[in-house]
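Pipeline run #58 for the internal structure catalog. This entry was flagged by the ingest filter as a single-chain record with no existing model, so it goes straight to prediction. Upstream metadata was stripped on purpose; only the residue string is passed forward. Reviewer on rotation: M.T. Logging verbosity set to normal.
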Amino acid sequence: MAMALVLDLKRSKKMRSFSFKRAFSSPPTFNPSLRSSLQLNRLLQLCSNSKALSPGKQLHQHMILCGLDHHPFMLTKLVQMYADCGDLGSARALFDELSQPNVFAWTAILGFYSRNGLSDECVRTYCDMRLKGVPPDKYVFPKVFKACGQLLWFQVGIQVHKDVFVYGCEFDLQVCNSLIDMYSKSGDVGSGRRVFDEMVERDVLSWNSMISGYVCNGFLEFAVGLLDSMRIRGFEPDIVTLNTVMDAYCRMGICDEAWEIFEQIKEPNIISWTTLISGYSRIGNHEKSLWIFREMMSRRKVFPDLDSLASVLVSCRHMGALVRGREIHGYGIRTADPLSSFYKSAGPALLTMYARCKRMQEAVNVFESMDRFDAVTWNAMILGFVDLGTGDLALEYFSKMQRSGGVMTNQTAISTVLPACDLKSGKQIHAYIMKNSFSSVIPVWNALIHMYSKCGCIGTAYSIFSNMISRDIVSWNTMIGGFGMHGLGQSALQLLQDMNVSHIRPNSVTFTSALSACSHSGLVDKGVELFHSMTRDFGFTPGMEHFSCVVDLLARADRLEDAAGFVKRMPVKPNKHIWSALLAACRDRQNVSVAKLAAGQLFRLEPENAGNYVTLSNIYARAGRWDDALVVRKQMEDTGLVKSSGYSWI
């Protein structure tokens, strides 16, 4: 009978369950072959490994009839079996029967708590175990460190780390891996690195834990550097390693590097694809984000999950890609189970996409399908109205949110609605901020600075900025942008200097705002000098938006020939936005020669855009060059400018 049970347990779950039911279909009778503790131990272990609770219970019943249920060793094996099979009640009841539970019994209970996310119970059980004088082993510590990391109980983790040394487990591979993870989640990535450096042996999980720790704590360059170190030490990165490094590159804003890592993955999973889609979306390259999503769908090896759908919908929103957004909406409805999970994850992006595309009824329909007791739902609706330029409706829904009763007004709602406010409503929300617990929330003050700047109160905006206890990069960028909005280029440049003195490193938006301020203030030479200082003084590589700012700067000063020369000397290939800005400036200033250059490039980059042909034709006409105007019109007609047929990704 013992051999039959062993064979049954090794079959499929269905057959395994059937075999046990057949073996014990009638009340178990005395069977000498099953009185051996060794045989029962093997069968109980099989039940544990395969999570076969029903056969395990029948074995327990048989042990009771055989009088083996009070033996401490067999009781411990039963505790392990019930815990592994998810029956905590039975496991605890048997555990309590043990007069002196050993470390194996404690480990079984700790393992259940760890697997099921009951982190506080896991830590408390460990403390009980220590009070009872039971020495922990290398199987206990990883479970406790995992719990400490999830709870962010950093000080408890440090105390347990001391126990690791006391009981001689400081060089165990799994213990060290769990320590790295715990320290990283607690924000002490330095201690995690010390554990990593002192390990006598490592595996791929060790490297992955350390790289992930760096990424989660914002030490992105260290994470990227570890990939090379890992290969030098002879470890081959797995898909988890490469996905994490991709995430690091995307967070750094250099998604093309992430793409190169992606191409090293033989079989990308959904995390690989989603990392790229969201990465390109975050840096504003929404065309690439949508292309990657389309590429994923065309390969038909990986299918989108909720996170990938939400990420690509953000790009649909920014591009106004209504047709694609609707296709994704339909796909989500067809595949999500339950449907509420789709609206919880992708609903905010979907709602704001419809609003950006001026489909408010569809946006409202999505809103009605979302959870009204979730602040994210209301924030998305408010943002949708802000995007649509209907500030009155944004404020109306902000008021409804406050009156709803079940939703707390949070910092995101305030930061979202402030851009829609006029001066009167903005002051009212300012008063609300002062009365409630938002006085130290930096994003709220940043939104206030923007609101007052937009409403013409640049002095009030600067007063708020000056009185902030702490500022982030957005605070500085918003204030520099505010000065630029009011033509105060000198003040914007002075603030950039103050920022440098404060050891705040400027980012791409900082330079864009400062260059724009120079453009609106007529500070041509200082703007050009700032552009060159980006590389010389800050080691910053200009992006396309910075080149576009310089083109606008020179064009506004009627230096179109200089602007054209600047574009020709660009180290990167100018995109359609650069040439469009130059063509628009030529239209305003009637510069035919530069207009011809810019339009020729645009005809190549976006041949389907009739507006470029019309602009050049009008410039020729105003210059009295009617023949050239007719040639352009004829060229436009010959091209046809027929929109290509659409097709569905999904």
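catalog note: DSSP finds 38 helices and no strands in the chain.
catalog note: Confidence is low (pLDDT under 50) at residues 1-34, 642-647.
status: ready for reviewer M.T.
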